[in-house]
Task: inverse folding
């Protein structure tokens, strides 16, 4: 018997793939620090991925949820947006501390903690609740998010995507 396998990604699949990519980049950074390898490339890749992911969620997902009638979804989305703002502020500080490796690492470790908690809340609370919304235009969300992701990755220099 052959199972039907869904091959088209939806917005939540894309965002969760981003989450797994971020977690892998965080591990790459930790591994580089443990082994004494150059951690700058892992850190730069994680920062780029975080900024792209922030843009996707802020421009597409949270904007779509702002008009939602479910107060819990709206609250979770607003809290998530505030977390994004905090992470972006830390990334600015991190990028400004490139000469001080200890300070840079401290900022990045704080970013990692915040992002891991943010991922946990999105995947266990926000996403499941959004998926149950009635009358929500999931097709429009999927199309907009996937289109924007392609635009963002297409705008990267080749060296940043390799």
Result:
């Amino acid at each position: 018997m052959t199972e039907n396998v869904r091959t088209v990604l939806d917005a939540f699949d894309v965002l969760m793939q981003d989450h797994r990519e971020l977690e892998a980049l965080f591990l790459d950074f930790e591994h580089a620090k443990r082994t004494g390898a150059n951690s700058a490339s892992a850190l730069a890749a994680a920062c780029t991925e975080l900024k792209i992911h922030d843009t996707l969620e802020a421009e597409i997902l949270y904007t779509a949820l702002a008009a939602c009638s479910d107060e819990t979804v709206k609250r979770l989305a607003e809290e998530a947006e505030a977390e994004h703002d905090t992470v972006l502020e830390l990334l600015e500080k991190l990028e400004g501390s490139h000469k001080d490796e200890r300070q840079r690492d401290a900022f990045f470790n704080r970013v990692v903690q915040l992002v891991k908690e943010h991922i946990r809340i999105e995947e266990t609370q926000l996403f499941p609740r959004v998926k149950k919304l009635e009358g929500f235009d999931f097709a429009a969300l999927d199309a907009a998010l996937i289109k924007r992701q392609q635009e963002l990755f297409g705008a990267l220099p080749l060296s940043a995507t390799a």
About this structure: Confidence is low (pLDDT under 50) at residues 158-162. The first helix runs from residue 11 to 35. Residues 29 and 43 are 6 Å apart (CA to CA).
